[in-house]
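forwarding from the other thread:

> can someone predict this with phosphoenolpyruvate?

sure thing
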Amino acid sequence: MRTLSGLGVSAGVGQAHALLVSPAPGLPTSDPSQGTEADMARIESALNKVADRLDERSMHADPSALAVLQATAMMARDPGLLTSIKSHLTDGHGPAHALWAAFDDFCAQLGAAGGYLAERVTDLRNVRDRAVAVMQGLPEPGVPSFDSPVILVAEDLAPADTATLNPDLVRGLITAAGGPTSHTAILASQIGIPAVVRCSEAREIEDGTPLALDGVTGTVLVEPDEAAVAELTSRANRRAEVLASAPEGDATLSDGERVLVLANIGSPSDAPTAKKKGAEGVGLFRTEFLFLDRQDAPTVNEQTEAYATVLKTFDEGAKVVFRTLDAGADKPLAFADLGPEENPALGRRGLRLSQVRTDLIDAQLEALAKAAEQTGRDPYVMAPMVATRAEAEWFSSRAHAAGIKTVGIMVEVPSTALRSAQVLETVDFASIGTNDLTQYAMAADRLQGELAELLTPWQPAVIQLVKATCDGAGERLIGVCGEAAGDPLLALVLVGVGVRSLSMAAGKITAVKATLSRHSLDQCRQIAEAALAASSPEEARKAALELADPSVEVLVS
Ligand code: PEP
Ligand code: MG
């Protein structure tokens, strides 16, 4: 047995055989033709194999995934495609290049058609990558088909791959790359699949190897013996006991102080799950997740429907926060692309992009106001990446003009945290995005796994910025919706510096509620003081753990 370690980013223990997710191999460097007829036979056989595998996979899929997989299989069998490939072969292309060129033609046609058809480009590219891999005798890229429990092992996973995974069959995710706040990690914990990222030794794991993982500690056991799995499981059981003690209703500290515990969601369908897992509302709806694969801007009506669905899911008076489009940097949107930039994370992203594409923000605000009218609810609406008072004012007057009553901003830029008294003057609430706040405070790209040590929100500088935000906020409700809020121990620190609303992946709610209920506000303040006095993230965490209730240990290490 070998023990590997990575970063645990989504709680839970999983045990199953490894299923390797191969990256798309791309075009071969050598692609000789064996004559049109032989080439066509090879191409047709590769496409049929891809189609057959998709069909086979569809037989085990749920109804919505079934339709998608069958439609994709039909693309691979499209006779028009073969005609086009043949003409590229006769133009002198090698077989893989001819197939690639024909797909490119189809993609261009669909892209130009716009709307629903344009969205099929992604599926076509997926068929192309699979077929080119099969022609080279390589495993198909992406998540291969499977019908028994697996642990997926990949270099990294695209958010689109993660979003469609079935937690009943996928018992865990292990990636060699990726960071703790990558959107793939966030999606995994939203779906409830244990996940470990930044486990570089995962590159050596072979297909079919028995594995076990703990998505809290980041431990991966390769060919585990029974005793090791038993220990992993026993800790998981002790954890389960603590979790079972979490209060069912609203979250309070042991002295009765209220703290809102909310969920981060990426689509209306996440809302009922979040509610079931104990969320009182939504602290962050990442609205851009709705449109990641769209080629054209969503209409006001379709947005209204999505937003109204979320509002109706929660009780009247619940806090439901919509973040306006946070496009750019790690979340590029095809319809909101302002062109290449040297440093996208420092460029025109978030609100800066909305200030250029006022059509997009106005449509979104109109949709939110309509959803409010339709449901009789009062949505909280906030803008991402606000750096100055002028930007906050720009957003708040635009949102009010559109009919939004409760307007806020995200605190993700150190300048806003340091000047919160001034920047927050024209808004009603704020939510601290500790993922970006850490990235910008530590000048460390959040997508770069190697920088994980700098990127932890346990950095005393980050905790100090959270405190500065709360200190300057007056009576305004300050929340945290970055991943920090879902760390039970760090949640105590956040409450200790003045945060009263914590929003997290739904899978983390119970652990945070259980932990909050075992501590008083005084204890949280002492824990926060100790963390702030520390000179490194490790020291801060250790100091907090020493002062916290002993039950917290099993939840966080
Ligand atoms: C954050 O930056 O902490 C945040 C919540 O926003 P996102 O992760 O979507 O950038
Ligand atoms: Mg952010």
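The first helix runs from residue 36 to 58. thats all i got for now
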